[in-house]
Amino acid sequence: MALSDCNHCWETPCSCGYEYKSWPLDKKLKLAAAILDVTPDKLKNTILPAVKSADGVSGSLCRGIGGTYFFRVYHDHEKFTDYELLHSDLNITIEDSDAFFYSTNVSAVLDHSPETLLNNTQRDMT
Ligand SMILES: [Zn+2]
């Protein structure tokens, strides 16, 4: 018979978490779900992300308030998911006839077409 459940904190049950590090994920979920008074499946769906490949998915690179970019994927006309960009070197092919590069010796910018920018400027002035 062991003196304690944990050879780190020596408490029964372990209060430091060391004893649970070697537990399989489903056993940890059952314990956490019991403590939080929810079902293990509900807890699992809340804390663990659903993972699927993004390769070949079409969406829009959007610039939000404050200049932060995100990737928007539409599920239908009104429903979409905005993904925070964490990928460090994502390969992109531009499929937008309104996208134009503007380059000088000191800067390079990707923006809307000159016509779109002119129309927006004229609209803003009225
Ligand atoms: Zn412990």
Explain how this protein is built.
The chain has 126 residues and is an alpha+beta fold. The chain has three domains: 1-51, no CATH class; 52-89, no CATH class; 94-126, no CATH class. Helix content is 25%, strand content 20%. The protein contains three helices and five strands; from the N terminus they run H-H-E-E-E-E-E-H. The strands form two sheets. The chain has a three-stranded antiparallel sheet, with no helix packed on it. A two-stranded antiparallel sheet has the order 4-5. Helix 1 crosses helix 2 (40-47). It is elongated and about 80 Å long. It starts with 24 loop residues before the first helix and ends with a helix. Bound molecules: zinc ion. The site of zinc ion has 9 residues, from loops.
The biggest beta sheet is recorded as: 3 strands, antiparallel
**Number of continuous helical runs:** 3
Strand order of the largest sheet: 1-2-3
Distance between the termini: 84 Å
The coarse silhouette is elongated
Task: Give the arrangement of secondary structure elements.
Elements: H1 25-36, H2 40-47, E1 60-63, E2 69-74, E3 80-84, E4 99-103, E5 108-112, H3 114-125
Antiparallel strand pairs: 1-2, 2-3, 4-5
Helix pairs in contact: 1-2
This protein binds zinc ion (ZN).
Concise structural overview:
The chain has three helices and five strands; from the N terminus they run ααβββββα. With 126 residues, it is an alpha+beta fold. The relative contact order is 0.06.
List keywords for this structure.
single chain; 126 residues; 25% helix; alpha+beta; two-stranded antiparallel sheet; binds zinc ion; three-stranded antiparallel beta sheet; 3 domains
